[in-house]
């Protein structure tokens, strides 16, 4: 059997055009779709943060509380959560997943 090389762009385009092909390709060459599972959050990181400073201050928070990660392996793919606070992910009484922020220091 002959072996062919195709680019990642061709794989992704084939998957975009046909959901059945996409399912097959995701099983056969999952690494081609690795970046597909992440969102590009860089567009939210204008001016150093995703929330306006004055609104954060009204909430009793500073501009470093939650930001787009701007370095490391999750650069522009994840949120940075300030270690000065407690962060929990819980489901509420309506079974909705929520990110809960509480103070560490009182």
Overview of this structure, please?
It is built from three helices and four strands; from the N terminus they run H-H-H-E-E-E-E. The protein is of the alpha+beta class. It folds into two domains: 8-37, no CATH class; 41-103, no CATH class. The strands form two sheets. A two-stranded antiparallel ribbon has the order 1-2. Strands 3-4 form a two-stranded antiparallel ribbon. The longest helix is centred in the N-terminal third of the chain and has 10 residues, at 8-17. The chain starts with 7 loop residues before the first helix and ends with a strand.
Strand order of the largest sheet: 1-2
SSE pattern: HHHEEEE
Separation of the first and last Cα atoms: 68 Å
What's the rounded overall pLDDT mean?
A: 85
**Count of individual domains:** 2
The number of helices is: 3
Helix proportion range: 10-25%
Dominant shape:
elongated
Q: Describe the largest sheet.
A: 2 strands, antiparallel
């Amino acid at each position: 059997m002959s072996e062919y090389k195709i680019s990642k762009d061709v794989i992704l385009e084939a998957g975009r055009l046909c959901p059945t092909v996409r399912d097959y390709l995701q099983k056969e060459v999952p690494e081609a779709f690795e970046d597909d599972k992440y969102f590009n959050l860089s567009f939210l990181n204008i001016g150093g943060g995703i929330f306006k400073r004055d609104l954060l201050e009204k909430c009793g928070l500073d501009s470093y509380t939650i930001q787009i990660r701007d370095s490391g392996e999750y650069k522009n793919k994840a949120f940075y959560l300030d270690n000065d606070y407690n962060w929990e992910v819980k489901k509420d009484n309506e079974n909705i997943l929520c990110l809960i922020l509480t103070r560490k220091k009182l």
